[in-house]
Design brief:
This protein is α/β, with parallel strands linked by helices. It has one domain: Rossmann fold, CATH 3.40.50. Helix content is 37%, strand content 11%. The strands form 2 sheets. The chain has a 3-stranded parallel β-sheet with strand order 1-3-5, sandwiched between helices. The protein has a two-stranded antiparallel ribbon with strand order 2-4. Helix 1 runs parallel beside helix 2. The longest helix is centred in the middle third of the chain and has 17 residues. The chain is flat and about 40 Å long.
């Protein structure tokens, strides 16, 4: 079994709304290649969807005032990830609606806190049990 999680790196935008480092077409090629390589080792591939961010804290991010993460943009990539997973008979675990603002640290919008990670863990665990993977 292979599990893939995309953390959203490469999906940020400059504050002016331009220059996504990994355009969605390249993202699709990268995921397709990842699936191709993974299938050399396992037929069971599970993608964990792209999580949301606490947008007021990510537009811009505190560590780089010219970089922003928006949920609208992350949703486009997550939708693409889900479509690629479906096309390749890979599993996909949807987590976009799982987290809310209380699941992020006070000073950090893209990374979940312990409570947020616990929610993701429970979602993945339930999926693995329901699908008789563990």
């Amino acid at each position: 079994m292979g599990r893939v999680q995309h953390g959203g790196h490469g999906i940020w935008r400059k504050a002016d709304g331009h220059d996504i480092p990994v355009p969605i077409e390249q993202f699709e090629k990268n995921i397709e290649k990842l699936i191709e390589l993974s299938k050399k080792f396992t037929e069971k591939i599970i993608f964990l969807g792209i999580k949301p961010v606490d947008e007021p804290k990510t537009t811009p991010v505190p560590w780089h005032k010219t970089i922003s993460y928006t949920n609208e943009n992350l949703k486009k990539y997550d939708d693409k990830l889900r479509a690629i997973a479906d096309k390749n008979n890979a599993d996909y675990i949807y987590i976009r609606d799982l987290l809310d603002k209380d699941d992020f640290p006070i000073d950090d919008g893209p990374h979940p806190n312990a409570k947020g990670h616990e929610k993701i863990y429970r979602k993945v665990k339930d999926f693995l049990i329901e699908n008789k993977i563990v």
